[in-house]
Amino acid sequence: MKILLDESVPVQVKSALAGHVVSTVSELGWKGRENGELLTAVEQAGFEVFILADKNLRYQQNLSARRIALVELWTNHRPTLEKHFALPRLP
Q: Which fold has domain 2-82?
């Protein structure tokens, strides 16, 4: 599965998704793009899942015509996520 992590999601989440092709918004040079423009770019690049921690996206964008699955994390706090996923711990 081709997955993209939003810039607000800790990059360590990549390691919790072993077996998938995972990229980040930063790696693709898409940091700072507005949500509508970003969602269009994500779909056009062939991503199947977009993981984000933006609790307002569903209120700011009309998502009914989107073909991508959106996964909204309950937090982007790395230490909290590390308790739930096998993420590498940083110093």
A: Rossmann fold (3.40.50)
